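Records of this kind hold a single protein each, on a pair of labelled lines. Below, a sample record shows both lines together.
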Amino acid sequence: MARPLTLFTGQWADLPFEEICRLASEWGYEGLEIACWGDHFEVDKAVSDDSYVKSTLDTLAKYNLQVWTISNHLVGQAVCDHPIDERHKGILPARIWGDGEPEGVRQRAAEEMKNTARAAAKLGVSTVVGFTGSSIWHTVAMFPPVPPAMIERGYADFAERWNPILDVFDEAGVRFAHEVHPSEIAYDYWTTVRTLEAIGHRPAFGLNFDPSHFIWQDLDPVAFLWDFKDRIYHVDCKESRKQLNGRNGRLGSHLPWADPRRGWDFVSTGHGHVPWEDIFRMLNAIGYDGPISIEWGGRRHGPPHRRPGGPGVHPQAQLRATGGCVRRGVLVGGVSAMKGAFRAFNALKVPFMAPSPPHPAAAAPPQPGTPPPTQPQQHPARSAIVSEWSEPARHQLRRTVRSAPRCGRSRRVRSGIRTSRSPKPARPHRTSRRAGR
């Protein structure tokens, strides 16, 4: 099941749109998830000027790129948020911020989200990714004690503000994919359930799956995909890494990104704790065939023009400088190699599988006098998995794995190709010096 591989432009918004198109094409991406900030896609111009949309499409075509999704996280955040303060002033266009009066900001943000749906339709895009904001996120600690009625008012406020926006999405034939994310109305499993209930499970509202927000909350991203399989409208490949060591707290301690005292941080795909192979198998199982969007994360591995090394340093050189390796079947040793590994997983024909049953040899008790086998038999279920892989996928994984440098003494290369391994030879008994005296 091949899926297009795209690059999210949000972290590159300080570069001109044509420049990021040129770079993405040079790195081999098939398209972009275009952010509605910087000069990448300006919603007000798109709805009022047909030539602006044509210019955007011409620029994409010039670099042999396509667009399946646009994203308007920053404006969507202000639709429901409470309080509205200087944080929002720093991320909103001046015309949305206006005089900063909170309800005025919310109303202008809601109108902008309606126009985002109209602009997406003019661009030929069927999905808008974004945030919703939340009037009750500030109560997440549940102290001072939060009355249940206050939480109910929060979900009612969300439905009241977003249903008119979703009406316009329906009219335009566009879907909204909410990114499940802390600070939003839906930030984990159960708040996602409650959010969908609040708007009556209307089809215009779905989910953008970004597992980086699940890992540090100890949520199961694979189970989430299965349970919300009819609502997965878009997938971001972004990663986070837990750093919980007895001092670092899960809530971040009000520390900036990349501070080693944080309990978790964003990192580039393949450098964290996301179970990518299981995720791709589950995406196959639920039939997701939309784009896979790479979102560069973390100040250590993020966009190369913002990392040590400065502008003009090629991402492949920067990634190699961090030490390429293969982890859980995902190659992170360079942009083109990473793409090769993701394409290989995209081409897998096998769905996610439940845990394997016990090995047949372990089920039967050993017969007296029968020596133990020297080579474990390959499990038939695993044989079936490998036999169903498409040959191009297997070839691509072998090629990318063989070309990848090893990363550290303790990391094993796990390509996903080997299905069994010979047992380690028994180590001879060694008597300690103390015992031998």
About this structure: The radius of gyration is 24 Å.
